[in-house]
């Protein structure tokens, strides 16, 4: 049996040198999470390809197709793009991660980008390096289809699809109902994540104001960076959701627009929470810096006080160490005890003064 070349490798061919080996094509089924046909709110039985599914819907003149893709490459999504008439610019955006939330219209197709978020479990917010992980969902909405392209491993829609399969009344509203369910699902996750981040910030706030706490300003800045990542996912989504709720396109019927208004209200709540988090963390940074400055001032007062006390014996010892013959009480037998007594008395007096003033 001849050897199978590896991807991107080279294989010799006689004495003509090495030639590049073409990559092995990956079937579209490897990227399709699910492909389903819905008619009158019910999912039709059987397994469908994207071509068979859309033919079935258009033959019946009712229903719609829902296709879910996970991180497809350009070759695999091209077949779906040609079948459903997706715009090349929207397809290009769907292939690239790190898109901002947005809503664009291409002819009779809508293209929606939403950011998904996941709370990363950790032992303590004061030691965690990552709190929020983001992914992306791209949604193509047409008259008789909805296509979701997922980037990231935490933004799956399998559970949501099962819930919709059991809710034929919602699916009767068409593919726009699926888009609403997806956005509602994502925003509900926003609420859950912001609630858990709020608990983390409460823990950090308590430790910042606790005596002798070890929370550093760098750790608060790290938390602030995670909140900023969440903010980039939440804030830009407000405009697309508002446009869907206000009748931006006929692809969203009146019955579904009212649902989008509810999503917009929840998103406003999330946005207000995230903005409050940012302000609170800025306050905690200021409090931490002020606490550090106060601690440094306290330490400096203590150092200065002890330096002043130590100066007394140092000064007296320095005077009597000059090796002059005519120093006071130099040859008196009680001179040494007297000097020691004076040093202790002055040091004790300074200690009491500094102690009374709160420096020690």
Name of the CATH homologous superfamily of the largest domain: CorA soluble domain-like
Q: Strand order, biggest sheet?
A: 4-3-5-9-8-7-6
Strand content: 15-25%
| SSE pattern | EEEEHEHHEEEEHHHHHHH
Rg is: 36 Å
CATH architecture descriptor name of the largest domain: 2-Layer Sandwich
CATH class of the largest domain: Alpha Beta
Per DSSP, the total helix count is 10
Q: Tally the structural domains.
A: 2
Portion of residues within helices:
40-55%
Instruction: Please state the structural category.
Output: alpha+beta
Give the tally of β-strands. Answer: 9
Q: CA-to-CA gap between the ends?
A: 87 Å
**Main sheet specs:** 7 strands, mixed
In terms of per-residue confidence, which ranges show pLDDT below 50 for 5 or more consecutive residues? Answer: 1-29
Characterize the overall form.
Answer: rod-shaped
Mean of residue pLDDT? 83
Report the CATH topology name of the largest domain: Beta Polymerase, domain 2
């Amino acid at each position: 049996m001849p050897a199978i070349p590896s991807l991107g490798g080279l294989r010799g061919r006689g004495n003509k040198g090495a030639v590049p080996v073409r990559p092995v094509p990956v079937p579209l089924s490897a990227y399709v999470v699910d492909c389903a046909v819905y008619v009158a709110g019910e999912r039709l039985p059987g397994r469908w390809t994207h071509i068979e599914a859309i033919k079935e819907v258009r033959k019946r003149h009712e229903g719609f197709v829902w296709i879910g893709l996970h991180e497809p490459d350009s070759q695999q999504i091209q077949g779906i793009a040609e079948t459903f008439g997706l715009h090349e610019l929207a397809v290009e955006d769907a292939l690239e991660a790190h898109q901002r939330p947005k809503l664009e219209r291409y002819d009779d197709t809508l293209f929606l980008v939403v950011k998904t978020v996941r709370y990363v479990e950790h032992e303590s917010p004061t030691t965690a390096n990552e709190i929020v992980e983001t992914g992306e969902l791209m949604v193509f909405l047409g008259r008789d289809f909805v296509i979701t392209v997922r980037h990231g491993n935490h933004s799956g829609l399998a559970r949501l699809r099962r819930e919709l399969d059991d809710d034929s009344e919602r699916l009767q509203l068409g593919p726009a109902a699926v888009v609403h369910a997806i956005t509602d699902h994502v925003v509900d996750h926003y609420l859950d994540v912001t609630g858990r981040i709020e608990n983390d910030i409460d823990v950090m706030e308590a430790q910042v104001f606790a005596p002798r706490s070890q929370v550093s300003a760098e750790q608060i800045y790290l938390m602030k960076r995670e909140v900023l990542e969440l903010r980039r996912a939440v804030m830009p989504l407000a405009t697309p959701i508002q446009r869907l709720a206000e009748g931006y396109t006929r692809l969203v019927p009146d019955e579904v627009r009212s649902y989008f208004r509810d999503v917009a209200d929840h998103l406003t709540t999330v946005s207000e929470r995230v903005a409050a988090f940012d302000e609170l963390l800025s306050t905690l940074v200021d409090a931490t810096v002020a606490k550090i400055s106060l601690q440094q001032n306290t330490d400096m007062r203590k150092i200065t006080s002890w330096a002043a006390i130590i100066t007394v014996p140092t000064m007296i010892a320095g005077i009597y160490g000059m090796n002059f013959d005519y120093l006071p009480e130099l040859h008196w037998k009680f001179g040494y005890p007297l000097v020691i007594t004076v040093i202790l008395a002055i040091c004790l007096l300074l200690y009491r003064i500094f102690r009374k003033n709160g420096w020690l």
